[in-house]
# Entry
Amino acid sequence: MKDRSKKERSKKDRGADANPHRKLKAKVYEKKLRGLQAELCHLQEWVKATGQRIIIVFEGRDAAGKGGTIKAITERVSPRVFRVVALPAPSDREKSQMYVQRYLPHFPAAGEVVIFDRSWYNRAGVERVMGFCTEETVQKFLKIAPYFEKLMVDSGIILLKYWLEVSPEEQTRRLASRIDDGRKIWKLSPMDLKSYSRWYDYSRARDEMFAATDTDFAPWYVARSDDKKRARLNIITHLLGQIPYESAPREKVKLPKRQKPGGYRESDHPFKFIKEQY
# Structure
């Protein structure tokens, strides 16, 4: 009976994992995420050993889940290798520069992975929808962007572009949940509220952006993100599959012996320890 029940439980777990309409159990999610994060660490060592340069772009509507996905990718790797770039609104000086100029200083050097939490595609999305730029500048951007990205790819950069697709119902639920949650209120900006009402303007902008910039050398990959946990697992799995990394050679680590006290005595300094409330 025990064997049969184990098989049944195993079958049930596989079913829950495979069915995209069933909520993913926390234990299943954490287990799969741990394995993927371990692979990201292997990727990190390969990037350092080979001097590879990687750019990962995350785009999507407000509350699509970009931040949580980026956190899942970066929480177990080194911030010296995986750098996250989330630029604020451009300054007056930056507005006078060539549009992509403000992004170039953040591009990776050898042995680095740069993740853009929104990118140069702001021009095709939020700037266009909210009227921060003219239609003429948008059309110029859509025409130039593929050439810009071709230069990146031809220079040896691995470029991955992800669009997180959230439904209007789920976006509403997520934005509403931020209103009374002190941990999330900082995520709800006046711009979020303005852009929320312009769902179909964003849809049109997204469609035209894809038509102009979804190229063979720098394609857009779309991830459904109503289920945040599944989206994170799917994106990390896909990301790892797009990069031809191998296990980098690494010496075995052994802790050395600590030195002897050599007459050292513990200090009698009145250290100001914090109150241990927990």
Summary: Confidence is low (pLDDT under 50) at residues 1-16. The radius of gyration is 23 Å.
